[in-house]
């Protein structure tokens, strides 16, 4: 099964995964980072209760929970079951070209929507494609309502700097646009192994600078710009903030980091406890590092190793975390290090979820809640 490549089909993906994400409110408590890494769980009550007949809209698993995920939420488990139905090969067994064609979490969530008879809602943001500079394109999401100039969120997708694309993470970008009322610039940075470190980081910073200089041309306010990203994209977003600080460029007003890659050490507690998890595990992350980093020494670069970087003066931050994720420990550490550096942090751990859950608001209630928290924090910073 190949990834969707045409924008028209991508919009269908977005519409499907966005269901129930719009006009939602946080159902978990607000607050800063804690020290345990577990007690700040967002408690969410599902409104998609399974019924005996598998009624339209119900999301439920069909089998036993995997050994690696005894506390998976039912809806998350259902998506993982759909992912397993594709019989995906482990990343270490694939070339990057093969991995880019393999079905992943986005397709699994879409399949679950079909199984559960969940219809797609109308999209409330317009999209256009734009070349920001040679080799770097973007998809720009513009609110259909409201009054320009809008705040701007520069968004960086995940995929370990190697796989995935704007379509794969379209639901997240669309949700941020719809729920914040901001223009979202989703950046297609160049990927490895064709372009190794620091290409994705340089492209991401160049895209941020492009937005600052050209915000008016996309109905944006250059004085109200935030950065956001998932996984590798969360790493890129934080690195962009550091580069802006160090190069005397206007800082982002806020940063949203969704289960960010924040270090290169694969010996943390969450790496050790997530060797079999789906869709991401220890071996998968090691595969990403192998293809993106030129040498192991690159892993010590502060743009990769955020937990050991100078974090002074960075913008206020929201960090979203998933329980079954090799990146959990470093995300918690990053939150603590940011707070120690004087940065205001809102850390939210969603128990029972896996890496990549954030864009699945149509089927996973925790994703709906996480999106609402992220949107609320961004709106507060971009007034």
Automatic annotation (TrEMBL):
Residues 24-71 are annotated as: Disordered. Residues 24-37 have a biased composition (Polar residues). InterPro entries: AB_hydrolase_3 (IPR013094), AB_hydrolase_fold (IPR029058), GDXG_lipolytic_enzyme (IPR050300). The keyword Hydrolase applies. Keywords: Hydrolase, Signal. One of its GO terms (molecular function) is hydrolase activity. This is Alpha/beta hydrolase.
